[in-house]
Amino acid sequence: MLEKNLIEDVLRAVLKHGGDFSEIFFEKRYSNRMEMKDGKVEWVTSGETTGVGIRGFLGTKSVYAYTNDLSRSNLLEVAKRVGEALGETKKEDLVFNFDVSKRKEKHFVLYYPKDVKKSEKVLVMRRAYDAAKNHSTLIKQVVVNYWEYDQEILVVNSEGTWAEDRRVRTRLMVSAVAEKDGTLESGFYGPGAGMGFEFFDRIDVEEVGRRAARIAARMVEAEPAPAGRMTVVIANGFGGVIFHEAVGHALEATTVAKGASVFAGKLGQKVAAECVSAVDDATIPNGWGSANVDDEGTPTQRTPLIDKGVLVGYLVDKLGERRMGMKSTGSGRRQDYTFPPTSRMSNTFILPGDYHPEEIISATDYGLYAKSMGGGSVNPTTGEFNFAVQEAYLIEKGRITKPVRGATLIGKGYEIIQKIDMVGNDLAREQGMCGSFSGSVPADVGQPTIRVREIVVGGRSR
Amino acid sequence: MTFEGFKDKVFSLGKKKGVEVQLRYRENREFNIRLANGELDQYTDASKFSVTVEVLKDGKLGRYRTESFEDPERCLEEALTNLEVIDSEEKEHFYEGGVYPRMEIFFGEFEKLSVREKMKMVEIAYRSALEKDGIFMVPLVLYNETTNRTVIANTLGLNVESKRDGGIIFVMALAKDVNPRSGAWVEVGISPSDLKPEEVGRKAAEEALSYVGARKLKSGKYPAVLRNNVLTELFEMFFPMVSAEHVQKNMSPLKGKLGQKIAADRVTIWDLPFYPKSLNNAPFDDEGVPTREKRVVDRGILTVYLHNLKTAKKEGKEPTGNAIDGRISPVNLVLEPGEEPFEDLLKILRRGILITEIEGMHAGANSVSGEFSLFAKGLWVEDGTPAHAVEEITISGNFLELLKRVVAVGKDLRISTGRAICPSVLVEALDIAGE
Question: What is the ipTM, given to two decimal places?
Answer without folding.
Answer: 0.90
